[in-house]
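Troubleshooting log. The previous structure file for this entry was overwritten by mistake, so regenerating from the original sequence record. Sequence copied from the archived sheet and checked twice against the printout by T.R.
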Amino acid sequence: MTQPAPIRRAPGKPLLTTALELAARMVPVLPLRAGKLPFGNCRACAGNACGGRPNMLTPGPCHCPRPCHAWAAATTDPATLTGPAWASAWRQTAAVAYHPGGTGLTVVDLDNSAAITWARQTLPATRTVPTTRGEHWIYRGAMQSANAVRNGVDIKSTMSYARWLGPGTGTMTDLPDAVRALVVKKPSPVRPVTEPVPAGGGECRHRTPAFLERGIAMAEQRITGAAGGVHATVYRTFLAVLSVHGRCGCLTDAHAARLFAAAQARGETVRHCSDAWSNARTALGM
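Regenerated output below.
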C-alpha cells in the first residue's frame, strides 16, 4: 500500500484533528489514554460501560457486532472518530495510535540504545521516528506482530497498534527478510500438524463458511466458558484453531480478532493474546 503523505502535528494541534487527517489517508487510527491504553470504539463499551477494568487493555463481556477494543478499535471512519463512543475519549486522550498492518506497514520498535545499535548494524535503513526511549523503524509491508523478538525489540504490524509520533525522516523501504525472520522459530518436534494442506489444487473444506464459522464460534464459547486457568485455555484454543485452519489461508484478521476479543473479555491482555497466538504458531511449526 502506498505510504500516506506525511502529517506533522503542529504544537497545540488537537489530537482528533491529527487522527482525522490520518484517517483521510486510509490509516486506521484510535485514541490512547495515559499509559498507551486504548479506548473501545463503540458506545456500549465507552468508559468501560461493558464492565472492563479501568486503565487496562481488557474489556468486560463485550457483545458488540465487531471487535471494538485494542488494535481492533482502529478505524478510518470519521463518523466513528467523532461519534458518541469517543466524544469524551478525545478530551482524555494522551496520544493517537494507528494499526500499522491495516495500512500495509510494519514497525520495528526499538526500546533502547543497544537495540538501535543492533538495527543499524543489521537492518536496511528506512524511515525512522524517534520515540521516548528509542526509535520506530517503519517498513513497507505487513507481517505477524510479536513482542520481545530480541532484547528491546518488538514487531508491530497486524493485530497490533503503534503510537503516531510524526512522519519521521528517511526513505521508507520494503520489509526485509531479516525482520520477518525475527518471528520465525524452529518447529516443535512433539506437536505434529493434524490438518495437512490439500495437494493438487483440491478444494479446501475449511473454506466452507459454515465449517469455519462453527469452528470460530466453538472456540469463542470455549474461552468464554472457561471456569479457571484462562491463560492455558486461551493457548489451547488458539492451538486447536490454528491446527485446523491455520495452514490453508482460511483465517483472517477478523477471525483472530474475535478470538482475541473473547480472551480479553475473560481478563487477558492484548500482549498475552499475542504471545499465546505466536506460541501456538511456533508449536505447530508455522
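The chain has nine helices and nine strands. Archived copy saved in two places this time.
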